[in-house]
Design goal:
The chain has ten helices and eight strands. The longest helix has 19 residues.
């Protein structure tokens, strides 16, 4: 993945290579010189001033979201890297780069189907009840939006659904949810819903609200399967330490699910269907970080 190099001081693209910078843990880093302002600089590829190699950082992120604990990831580093990092350093890498990548991926426009599914799952934060709310496209299995919150208030739910509305534009015709009473008001303020009834909409409604209750017509299987995958990872946490940490980790899992992990039903990552123009290499974590900086 090649990117055009520009001078950070004057934005000129008239730059040339000018020597190498030797670092203890990251090896040699290319330096550049600008012909226009004569200043030398190092390209910020997402790891500027980091004391560990990008491959090591992205390796720890991948291990964590695939189910390896922080301390076991630390033990892995002890076996394969001479300069080890503590488990808390790995945690800081995860939160930092999950937030960084999330700011980039949230701006990408999506090519989705006609139906979205929304649901919530409970998680604990220092013994307090918290909720992870997400919206998924049923065609591409792409997690369109998500957020972690203490309460399922109207304001919090609207925030998640509004992001889904912005990212999908006019493509969505049906939004499927469970029987939570607040969804009617949420969809009214985001998608322009006029009637809250099952598969019924007035002439002025832009979408249909499909309500599926477990005791009536089964489950929302696709999004419930997604939540089962999330629970496989979070069940060993014994709760999150803070709301900020929970938000960052769940954003990281959203990235992992959409861009890194191959979906079994699709036999490819969801982004390959939802964002076909985005091309990522073998180390997708590394490519996403470089696109985000």
């Amino acid at each position: 993945m090649k990117t055009e190099i520009k001078c950070p001081y004057c934005s000129s693209n008239e730059v040339i290579k000018r020597g190498l910078r030797n670092t203890e843990n990251r090896g040699k880093i290319q330096r550049y010189s600008c012909k226009k302002c004569n200043k030398r600089f190092v390209v910020n590829n997402g790891f500027f001033r980091m004391r560990n190699h990008p491959q090591k950082i992205t390796l720890c992120m991948d291990l964590f979201f695939r189910g390896v604990s922080l301390r076991k990831a630390q033990e892995h580093l002890q076996a394969f890297y001479p300069h080890n990092s503590s488990h808390m350093t790995i945690y800081r890498w995860i939160t930092k780069y999950s937030n960084m990548i999330g700011k980039y991926t949230d701006t990408l426009k999506l090519n989705v189907g006609y139906e979205l599914m929304s649901d919530e799952m409970e998680e604990r934060v220092r013994g307090r009840q918290g909720w992870f709310v997400d919206v998924m496209d049923t065609k591409t299995r792409f997690m369109v939006s998500s957020d972690f919150m203490y309460g399922r208030t109207l304001e919090n739910m609207i925030k998640v659904m509004r992001k889904a509305r912005i990212r999908t534009g006019e493509q969505v015709k049906v939004v499927t949810t469970d029987g939570l009473m607040g969804y009617g008001s949420v969809l009214k303020k985001t998608f322009g819903l006029k009637s809250p009834n099952h598969y019924v909409s007035s002439a002025r409604s832009r979408i249909i609200h499909n309500i599926v209750k477990a005791n009536e017509r089964g489950f929302n299987h696709k999004i419930e399967r997604l939540h089962n995958s999330i629970r496989e990872r979070t069940k060993i946490f014994r709760g999150f330490g803070s709301l900020e940490g929970a938000t960052a980790i769940m954003k990281g899992y959203e990235i992992f699910y959409n861009f890194i992990r191959k979906h079994q039903a699709l036999n490819k990552c969801p982004y390959e269907l939802a964002i076909p123009e985005l091309k990522l290499g073998t180390n997708k974590w590394l490519d996403l970080i470089r696109l985000s900086c």
